[in-house]
């Protein structure tokens, strides 16, 4: 029997999120306010009068026509392992979104497929025969994920091509790096750092690096470092108003939803980073640093402070977000994988993003446009 789906209030949405240990920061109501070019709605699945699932859907209009791309990043928050996932949960969503004028629906099931421990990642990087993480036996395999993928395919969903092989592509990352915290004392987490990490943290401390929490008024300082990082690493930066909007929206919903950290040394800010929290899941969101005085290791210092604060908040996982799945020495993202795995992080593969074309012509046109960007 299908569940009933309807628009719910912000309060209902947040109350449901509060009952879950881990919900993506992109599936809370405030995230819709971060994306002004999208129209956001909170959806609720009801079994009778009981709310049993929620989702934040973002609707992006096509120019000149009243048709929308519907996107549920890292969501919705439903029972992904239900045998009747498609009929009971997803078909009501598709029917509603089609009625809203959606021509295509994209979602990101928060379903883990495989995990590689930090030691396994280190060994994989050192193995000349391994070109991608998939070439290496995982430390843990989640067999139920295959069933979810099979039900989606039979239900007409298609795995999105973008991100199928790479941790960095359009949409949200398929591969991430996470440090498991659950039940571990901070000393154990520290001992899980590799020698280089521990050495760099000591070096930063001896050099007098001080990591402090910042506020809205410090976002321009963060942004100056972020713009420098973008130029150095050759990516297009988001504008400062994006981060100001994110701070205002997320902290209004929960004062601890977003934090800003700044690493000071001799009166100069050398690094900055943002941290997001929903329930017991904590994310390192954006990082920025200058090329000046890198020898005092401000990046390791700022990460360790955030990890320590996340542990104090009762985090079950500290999420470094996206990584590449390539192990090629020529790939400039391999250094980022080394850095994150060095913190004791395990590589985690998710099921990836999935599309349902409600209008195949418009869906193909969108894919063509995205491929040419």
From TrEMBL:
<keyword id="KW-0133">Cell shape</keyword>
<dbReference type="GO" id="GO:0071555">
    <property type="term" value="P:cell wall organization"/>
</dbReference>
<dbReference type="InterPro" id="IPR050644">
    <property type="entry name" value="PG_Glycine_Bridge_Synth"/>
</dbReference>
<keyword id="KW-0808">Transferase</keyword>
<dbReference type="InterPro" id="IPR003447">
    <property type="entry name" value="FEMABX"/>
</dbReference>
<keyword id="KW-0573">Peptidoglycan synthesis</keyword>
<protein>
    <submittedName>
        <fullName>Peptidoglycan bridge formation glycyltransferase FemA/FemB family protein</fullName>
    </submittedName>
</protein>
<comment type="similarity">
    <text>Belongs to the FemABX family.</text>
</comment>
<dbReference type="GO" id="GO:0009252">
    <property type="term" value="P:peptidoglycan biosynthetic process"/>
</dbReference>
<dbReference type="GO" id="GO:0008360">
    <property type="term" value="P:regulation of cell shape"/>
</dbReference>
<keyword id="KW-0012">Acyltransferase</keyword>
<dbReference type="GO" id="GO:0016755">
    <property type="term" value="F:aminoacyltransferase activity"/>
</dbReference>
<dbReference type="Pfam" id="PF02388">
    <property type="entry name" value="FemAB"/>
</dbReference>
<keyword id="KW-0961">Cell wall biogenesis/degradation</keyword>
<dbReference type="InterPro" id="IPR016181">
    <property type="entry name" value="Acyl_CoA_acyltransferase"/>
</dbReference>
